[in-house]
Amino acid sequence: MEKILGIFDKFPFLSDSSKTGFLSNLEEVKFEKGELLEEEGKVSQYLYYFLEGAARSYYRRNNRDITVSFTLEGEFVTAMHSFISRKPSYENIETLEKSKAYRISHDTLLNMFENFPETERAYRMILEEYYIVLEEQQIFAKFKSARERYLELMEYRPKVIQKASVGHIASYLDMSIETLSRIRAKI
Amino acid sequence: MEKILGIFDKFPFLSDSSKTGFLSNLEEVKFEKGELLEEEGKVSQYLYYFLEGAARSYYRRNNRDITVSFTLEGEFVTAMHSFISRKPSYENIETLEKSKAYRISHDTLLNMFENFPETERAYRMILEEYYIVLEEQQIFAKFKSARERYLELMEYRPKVIQKASVGHIASYLDMSIETLSRIRAKI
DNA sequence: CTGATTTATTGATTTTCGTCAATAGTATTT
DNA sequence: AAATACTATTGACGAAAATCAATAAATCAG
User: Fold this and answer.
1) How many domains does chain B have?
2) Which nucleotide is nearest to A176 (CA to C1')?
3) Taking each helix axis from N to C terminus, what angle separates A117-142 and A106-115, rounded to the nearest 10 degrees?
4) Which window residues (76-105, chain A) lie with Cβ within 7 Å of strand D?
5) Domain containing residue A49: CATH number
6) Are residue A113 and residue A166 in the same domain, yes or no?
7) Is the shortest CB-to-strand distance from A47 to strand D under 7 Å?
8) Residue B132: closest CA among chain A residues belongs to which residue?
9) Which of B4, B123, B166, B186 is the most core-located residue (most Cβ within 10 A)?
10) Domain range for residue A187?
11) Pair (B87, B178) in one structural domain
């Protein structure tokens, strides 16, 4: 069974037939820097698995971009809210650099659930992880000062700091660009 | 099939045998006001469905209680982070009043998934709803002033305001008790 | 019912961080 | 390489809400 990609690492219970079935339904896609994978107003069609590159998810409010997450290699991403609810997304997902990913459409995923019930479990686990990340983020943000939030990001996801702009990081950490700039000045 | 309880309302795809199997694995439990259903430091064992009463989920930080959610009749609740990860919970769940609930243990739930694969889908949907609520909460919190957050709670979940104390509501809305008190003074 | 303890209100002060504004630095285009 | 347009830094100021502190009201225990 495929080894090159870590995509099944977290789903050891999947049978070979499920894996094969799953892989045959994946589509490999490449993106240049700044391309939109998912767009607000449209129902999110795909679940992505990043092989190379990076992306950010963001939405717009008061003419401003609010970054809600960054996706790096080896991670799944979609506009989960829309992907789940089948309602129009308020999120955009754009690549921060040239990227390569696998993707599977929502329809295909539902078919997979019918043909290979184990895959529903794998999806459930992706959802669980998504949930946990969101919950940790929420708690993490609640008690930390702007400075502490930045230091934690540096500690746990330094690659994000390398790949994203000050503006993206600031909105992700829920502070103004100026505040972030001042924090960086006196690390 | 049972009609009294709305527990299956959102899962119309469940077969009668799944429903019967599920119901036979539910345990009915009653609580007085202030009882702990789940406790920090312990792995969350149960998923609850509230028939009557209300509860709040909270964790402790800096000697303070931070309320993360309220559960009313007809809603599911657990310390989801722990229930998912099987790691010790940092959340507590306590009843706000005399309550009645169904509950199912994590082990039983996993067995159900084996015997009635459809139930895994129902669980997935509970998880999805949990996720969506959390995400909406996060965005909701980000752009609203203290006053607006309170007004929205009044609009969408007025029962919470009736049943919870000012302290609980304030921490849930991420503001000080004093601020909430002042907001209430001049509605 | 009464005293004690917890919960809520109101006022004064402080702090953190956002906004506005000017400047500097980096990229991108021609 | 010069011109233009983003992106980042730094300073001055102000606003929202936190903290500290003192009462007041409500709840609970005996």
Assistant:
1) 2
2) C18
3) 130
4) none
5) 2.60.120.10
6) no
7) no
8) A81
9) B123
10) 144-187
11) no
